[in-house]
Amino acid sequence: MGVRRFRGSSGALHGKRAKKGVFITTSTFSAEAVAYVEHIDPKVVLINGRRLTELMIDFGVGVNTSATYDVKRVDSDYFDETGVV
Fold it and tell me: CA torsion sign, 21 to 40 to 1 to 55?
């Protein structure tokens, strides 16, 4: 289903009298689709594959931690003013 059909008079948004919709793809949207949703009502938010992946990582949905890293900083309280322990 394309963005126009999703929003159109027989589409999901119109049929439910929705004020906003979200259209998700694991791929990308054409420039025409992006331009189209900028000027329509009801508003349609487009989420492409890259953004979907970012959201999955940010919110921990469908992902696992594969590695963690410690970030170190110098503990200045450990040293006296001369820099000698």
Answer: negative
- The pLDDT assigned to 31 comes to 95
Handedness of CA 19, 50, 70, 74 (dihedral sign): negative
Q: How far apart are CA 5 and CA 14, in angstroms?
A: 10
Domain map (residue ranges) of the chain? 3-60
Lowest mean pLDDT among 5-9, 40-44, 62-66, 72-76: 5-9
Q: 43-47 and 20-24 as β-strands: parallel, antiparallel, unpaired?
A: parallel
